[in-house]
Design a protein that fits this description.
The protein is mostly helical and about 150 residues long. The chain contains seven helices and no strands. The termini are far apart.
Length: about 150
């Protein structure tokens, strides 16, 4: 359990990281049409940009508890944030569709762990009496992601 100001910094950190992940999942949907034109891809081909991220999430989410236990929750979370960030930058530098699909898959591996691990971090951070407050702040923060993602896209 954390005390004082530190627990609020932890809440802000996990909200920010999950917000990035949620924005990223919705921002791509808006840009699919532009991707089709810029990457000379069909609708079926460009759908792999979304599907590869989702497939990586489906693979990683069930493994998150095991991996967090093996490497430590903090280390696993930090590695996931770094992988997600680096893959996001690589997506922006992609020169063709299949590079983008591969980087989106890697991004999904990093992003898949963020939501589940964030919830576990909150449980570790707050005492039982304050946990509902921490989870409410987390929920209010991350609900913004899907709503502003399309606007940013």
């Amino acid at each position: 359990m954390e005390t004082g100001f530190r627990k609020w910094i932890i809440v802000l950190t996990v909200v920010f990281c999950c917000l990035l992940e949620l924005i990223d999942t919705s921002i791509v949907n808006v840009a699919l049409t532009q991707m089709m034109g810029n990457l000379s891809a069909t609708q079926q081909e460009v759908s792999w940009v979304v599907a590869s991220y989702a497939i990586a999430n489906v693979i990683v989410i069930p493994l998150t508890g095991f991996l967090a236990e093996q490497f430590g929750r903090r280390n696993y979370y930090l590695a996931s944030v770094i992988l997600f960030t680096l893959a996001s930058m690589a997506c922006g530098q992609s020169t063709n569709l299949w590079e983008l699909v591969a980087f989106r898959f890697i991004q999904g591996i990093g992003g898949g762990a963020l939501m589940a691990t964030s919830q576990a971090i909150l449980v570790d951070t707050f005492p039982p009496k304050q946990l509902p407050l921490g989870q409410a702040l987390f929920g209010m923060g991350v609900i913004i992601g899907p709503t502003i993602g399309p606007t940013l896209g």
